[in-house]
Amino acid sequence: MENVATAAASSQAVAKRLKKRYAAERRFKALGFGAIALALGFLGILLVTIFSNGSTALVQTNIRLDVTFDAETLGVSPVNPSADELLRANYGGVIKSALSKAFPDVSGGQRRQLYKLVSTGADLPLRDKLMANPGLLGTTVSVWMTAGADVDMAMKGHVSRKPGVEGNRLTDAQLGWLDELEKRDAVTKKFNTTLFTTGDSREPEQAGLWGAVVGSFFSLSVTLLVCFPLGVATSVYLEEFAPKNKWTHLIEVNINNLAAVPSVVFGLLGLAIFLNFFGMPRSAPLVGGLVLALISMPTIIIAGRAAMKAVPPSIREAALGLGASKLQMVTDHVLPLSMPGILTGTILGMAHALGETAPLLMIGMVAFIVDIPASPLDPSAVLPVQVYLWADSPERAFVERTSAAIMVLLFFLAMMNLAAIMLRKKFERRW
Amino acid sequence: MQLLTLMVVLLLLTAFGYRLGRSRALATASGNPRLLHSLPSYHGYYVALWCGLPALVLIAGWLALEPALLHWMVMSSLPVDLQGMADERLALIYNEVRNVARYGHTPSIPAVGEAAQHYNAVRHTMFISVALGALALAVAALAYAHRRIHADMRARNQVEATVKVFLVLASTMAIFTTVGIVMSLLFESLLFFRHVSLIEFLFGTQWSPQIAMRADQVGSSGAFGAVPLFAGTLLISGIAMAVAVPLGLLSAIYMSEYAAPKFRSVVKPLLEVLAGIPTVVYGFFAALTVAPFIRDVGSSLGLSVASESALAAGLVMGIMIIPFVSSLSDDVINAVPQSLREGAFGLGATKSETIRQVVIPAALPGIIGGVLLAASRAIGETMIVVMAAGLAANLTANPLEAVTTVTTQIVTLLVGDQEFDSPKTLAAFALGLVLFTVTLALNVVALHIVNKYREKYD
């Protein structure tokens, strides 16, 4: 009788304990899932923040004005002005008079505020228009002009349009004019071509990414040209030729350690060796590319060796058995078979190099450069550095443009990674 | 541009050499390739290598020597009264000469303008002579190699020997890079330690690298005690690790022990996206979104939070490091033999008990190695702290205050125009040396632990 009672009691205790243990099990599992959810949640917040901030930069507020190409205001001769005259003419004055005409009752003191509605760079399209068609001289045409950055921000709702609210950079009068223009149907948002076609600028509405894109392209070309041949040669040597000795071991240890050296240290190397010792130009994509090549070399070597290791020894033995030399075996069999893997590694290494910023700051790629670089020797920005520079600018409009620049950067990274994945999928082979 | 033309001409000549060598080899064998020792293309490569390599070496040597030669020739042509000046002044003048000559800046004194003209003339003459020399060398070597071709020549062996030399040279690049890093860091740091003692640098608690404006004020350089930077770096990476280790480890455990293969195949690449996002993006996110958010939360709780708090930078850095911790721990956990788990299940342990009491202890050395690798990455991370951490060197353990880090200071000290030999810029190299040493030590230890662990279960 007693035995049964204790058995019942203990089974009850076991059941209780088991329940507790299962609860602990469920808690642990939920904890793991929660960790993943949290990490992905962060990723989601990051991307949503960037995209919601940046997507509005794809359009730009434009204002329509009736512009009179008045010879007197322009300061050119009324009949058949020379191209040189048209080049130097006062288009800003034309815009100002068009604005005054649109709002005739604005007094002298407030005019300056009125003029700020339109971007300071709006005169260049007018110049191009008139130079392309000199017959417009003396006529009045209706033109869409880039609005100033503050107007743009107000129109996009990034800053409040209520008068007197903090952070509102437009005066009450300017907001009134803006409302009036909207009533006249003279305000619209158009695709922001400036962002994708011009270089950097201090004015947000005139700032573009193209200079940085070209700079990144030059840098990565240099990187690829330097580190692909050297990386493949190193992997071939270490994987196929190197004897197992201390020297080879030293090289291998070195490569593994280089892969983990902070990138900013590579920047110091570039500054000390490339700039100060060899006297290469500052801010040039050539130097940037070389530094990035040193950074991505270990990635390519490690990927290359892994790809060559995956080629079965029987292929090598067959080639050697048919009388190929060792080098012929490598160039005719091992390399072609491992090329997809090597290329995948190279693309991933390049993608990493594209996002690298810190070492480029060291070699002076933070200069403010307006011109589009024409060669790898010209001073230039690169995409991530452009992000850094814009992120540092105080104007609200640059927040939007920084996010847009990040979107472009992420787009290129996504494309490169996609290419790598597709390459791997297409040529992946199980022996 | 001129150099590019020269290279293209050389390349064309090399291609011509290849054709010539190939056809001559076939001709000596009267059109029957079987009579040749090597394939005809190897004879082609043989001639091409002879044609291209010596000329290339000549051009490379010239490129390396050109700045020094130009410097010497221009400086010795300067007027005597200029030559007697102090070295620093002379360096400035030479810099100006170069800018005038290359970019057409307006010279400040006429002598510089003349020197710039001389500079351009010398440069031009040197380039022409080197170009002619290289082309002559290429043609001569081509003729030599072409004459040596005959059916019995071991062209393949010679070409392969050359290629092998190239392979060996390429593989020493890694060593050269390391040597370059160490040399440049050491050399500049030694210059720095002439101004500031090592003890003061490593143990001083004052960091204010601002230097008095007048150059003749000896000893007016700021304080270079790096302890606040080390403390700030430790604080921010500590916060980052406190975020990344639990999250990374738990997600790795879930992924390797619980998740269905389909879930894993979707979530793992997504987590890896976190590692692929450029750090400048994280920096922007930290400065724009996270830091204001933390400040607002703090002020609603009645805490005073700096707008560039260590917490914001550390938190975002932690997110960035999650995939490093998780993928490394994932590997390690997967390497634990299945038999250990089955033993635990057989004894009646639940899955979580097995993981906590069997799998994790067995995988611990590997996990520690992975955590050390992640820590070294956190210490060396630059852009997040440059954009989201402060510049003021506060010695504090309060995560709500602004601190600065080693990498932030390296960047701030070196960005912008400075004289290169002031203690301020040299301090960046000393900091770089500390950073390099610490991360290297962490890596060596971590790799050692991981490798030892791997051997245990292999």
Account of the 3D structure:
The complex is a heterodimer of chains A (431) and B (458). Chain A is mostly helical. In chain A, strands 2-1-3 form a three-stranded antiparallel beta sheet. Chain A is 67% helix and 5% strand. Chain A has two domains: 62-190, no CATH class; 210-427, Orthogonal Bundle (MetI-like fold). In chain A, α14 runs antiparallel to α15. In chain B, α10 (261-276) packs across α12. Chain B is flat, with a radius of gyration of 31 Å. Chain B is mostly helical and 458 residues long. Chain B has a two-stranded antiparallel sheet. Chain B folds into two domains: 2-171, no CATH class; 223-457, MetI-like (MetI-like fold, Orthogonal Bundle), CATH 1.10.3720. The interface between A and B is large, with 85 and 88 residues.
In total, the number of domains of chain B comes to 2
Radius of gyration of chain A: 32 Å
Q: What is the third-level CATH name, the topology of the largest domain in chain A?
A: MetI-like fold
Low-confidence stretches of chain A: none
Please count the beta strands of chain B (DSSP E, at least 2 residues each): 2
Mean pLDDT of chain A: 88
Spatial sequence of strands, sheet with the most strands of chain B: 1-2
Pick out the low-confidence regions of chain B. Answer: none
Strand neighbour order, sheet with most strands of chain A: 2-1-3
CATH class of the largest domain in chain A: Mainly Alpha
- Number of beta strands of chain A: 3
CATH architecture of the largest domain in chain A: Orthogonal Bundle
